């Protein structure tokens, strides 16, 4: 199983859904700063540092249930990037417990937990249900696209189907993670020119990112071979 690069959806924030924030304005401002910094670390691929900050948010007495659930999902995604799949599934299930059964957020988090257990068909059903509830939300599009990219087994590969979800995820939340996933799909489909365009932009923004440079080399090699 390849390591996913996931960006968590805007699932359920302090303004609704999972309980009211208990801290005052100062405490909430501190939690906001902590959350933004943790998200930046996650998006930059610094998973261990991001997890540590999200753990602080979860442990804060001022955090609402919504904020805790949001942080728990990010922790799950961080452990996935680190290759610790059992722990990733554990935190996904913890996040799901904060939501009503059958809701979008419950379905997405339970799908992640099932993927960690190798229950891919069951997870796909939940993700499809989640997309039916909220077609323009990030998480379900992102995860389902990764399933069809083959991140949970080659038997599930369908690059054309993956492109629908990868493109949607990138349009909903443009960023390093969703763009790299889209590029992976374009390379698999031998759409080297499109992939190269994305990667040139990524290489300017993340000049020290070896993964981006590796993907750019693949795109340029594919273009050169096509021109022979």
Q: Which topology of one domain does CATH recognise? A: Serine Threonine Protein Phosphatase 5, Tetratricopeptide repeat
**Residue-averaged pLDDT, rounded?**
88
Strand content: under 5%
The CATH class label of one domain is Mainly Alpha
Quote the distance from N terminus to C terminus.
Answer: 34 Å
Largest sheet, in brief, is: none
Helix-residue proportion: 55-70%
Q: Name the shape in a single word.
A: globular
Q: Supply Rg.
A: 18 Å
Would you list the SSEs in sequence order as H and E? HHHHHHHHHHH
- Which architecture of one domain would the CATH scheme give at its second level? Alpha Horseshoe
Structural class: mainly alpha
As residue ranges, the low-confidence spans are 1-21
**Tally of contiguous helical segments:** 11
The total strand number stands at 0
Keywords: Signal
InterPro entries: TPR-like_helical_dom_sf (IPR011990)
What do these coordinates show?
- Keywords: Signal.
- Residues 1-21 form the signal peptide.
- InterPro entries: TPR-like_helical_dom_sf.
- The chain is mainly α and 228 residues long.
- The protein has a domain at 33-98: Serine Threonine Protein Phosphatase 5, Tetratricopeptide repeat.
- Helices cover 70% and strands 0% of the residues.
- The chain is built from 11 helices and no strands.
- The longest helix is centred in the N-terminal third of the chain and has 19 residues, at 25-43.
- The protein is globular.
Summarize this structure as a short list of keywords or feature phrases.
single chain, mainly alpha, TPR-like_helical_dom_sf, 0% strand, disordered N terminus, signal, Serine Threonine Protein Phosphatase 5, Tetratricopeptide repeat, 228 residues
């Amino acid at each position: 199983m390849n390591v996913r690069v996931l960006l968590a959806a805007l699932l359920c924030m302090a303004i609704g859904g999972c309980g009211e924030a208990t801290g005052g304005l100062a405490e909430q401002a501190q939690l906001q700063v902590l959350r933004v910094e943790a998200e930046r670390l996650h998006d930059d691929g610094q998973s261990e540092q991001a997890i540590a900050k999200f753990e602080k948010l979860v442990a804060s007495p001022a955090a609402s249930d919504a904020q805790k659930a949001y942080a728990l999902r990010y922790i799950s995604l961080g452990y996935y990037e680190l290759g610790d799949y059992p722990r990733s599934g554990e935190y996904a299930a913890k996040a799901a417990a904060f939501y009503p059964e059958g809701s979008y957020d419950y379905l997405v988090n339970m799908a992640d937990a099932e993927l960690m257990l190798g229950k891919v068909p069951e997870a796909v059903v939940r993700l499809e249900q989640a997309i039916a509830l909220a077609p323009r939300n990030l998480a379900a599009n992102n995860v389902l696209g990764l399933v069809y990219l083959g991140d949970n087994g080659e038997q599930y590969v369908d690059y054309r189907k993956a492109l629908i979800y990868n493109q949607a995820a990138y349009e909903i939340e443009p960023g390093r993670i969703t763009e790299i996933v889209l590029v992976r799909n374009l390379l698999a489909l031998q759409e080297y020119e499109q992939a190269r365009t994305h990667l040139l932009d990524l290489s300017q923004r993340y000049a020290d990112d070896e993964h981006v440079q590796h993907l750019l080399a693949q795109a340029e090699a594919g273009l050169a071979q096509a021109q022979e």
